[in-house]
Amino acid sequence: MAYTSRGDASGILTTPNYVLDTNLGSNKLRVTIQIQGLKSSTVLEFQKKLIPKLYKKPTNGEIVFDLHDNGFLFEFHGQQALKDQNYSLHIHQLPGVLDYKRSQLIVREDAVEIILIKADNTSWSSCVINEGLKIAENVKK
Q1: Which of 34, 90, 113, 114 is the right S-S partner for 106, CB 3.0 to 4.6 Å?
Q2: What is the pLDDT of residues 99-125, one digit of tens each?
């Protein structure tokens, strides 16, 4: 199911185009946020663990991502060619509690994927696909 909303250039973060997908598993929801022109690079990060962490990060924008028990905040602030693209997707009431240690954000070319995993094994399908995500109002920055 796809959702589209674009704002104006008045300093308001606009809601990005996004698609919901429940085909990963009953307690998993993929939110794909489309950002045309997004570029990424691979980062190898060494922490206290023996196995390094390999992930992608945007090269022409900055992402803010904050998960909490029943929602999340995603913001993208474009840089370089994407400097006029600033998006916010703030979901404040998901149907169920998130396992935020297993949920993740994945940066791809032209898109960002948010994989949300419920703490229990209940399905996302009935509530999210029928009702969509409950988006908090965007605020001026």
Answers
A1: 113
A2: 988 999 999 999 999 999 999 988 887
**Residue type at 138 in one-letter notation:** N
Pairing of strands 104-108, 111-117: antiparallel
Q: Which of 102, 103, 85, 96 is nearest to 134 (CA)?
A: 96
Number of C-beta neighbours around residue 131 at 10 A: 9
Task: Tell me the CATH number of domain 2-131, given options 2.40.50.140, 3.40.50.970, 3.90.470.10, 2.60.40.790.
Answer: 2.60.40.790
Return d(Cα 18, Cα 33) in angstroms, integer.
4
Supply φ then ψ for residue 135, to 5 degrees: -90, 130
Predicted TM-score (pTM) of this structure: 0.83
Neighbours of 58 (CB within 10 A): 20
Q: How far apart are alpha carbons 90 and 135 in whole angstroms?
A: 6
Q: Which two tokens stand for residue 132?
A: 């969509």
The per-residue pLDDT of the chain, averaged, comes to 85
